[in-house]
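Please review this one:
***
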Amino acid sequence: MRELGGDKLVSSESVILSGPEMVGSGSVVPLTMSSNIPDTEFMAILVHKNPIPMTAAFVIPAGTDAAISTRIKMGETSTIYGIVRAAGKYYVGSTMIKVLAGGGGCG
């Protein structure tokens, strides 16, 4: 979190991550993330058990919906964290995705 410029995370149900409960392969895992927190300016996806957890980061322009849809790579079953910065504060939501076969080289 210090590398992102924050020191405290607030757990929030307004940070919503959605993806399949289980995937056959971690090579291509669809994921959506949205924030209902006003003035969301930054969103990041972290995969806890990947060799390099920071998977994606997005700057959200003012006046746009804070929602993204992407595909990530996962080496194994892991908790996925969605980090949101809004008005200088950091918020987090999470979900778990089970992987039957790793994504290979997901670092």
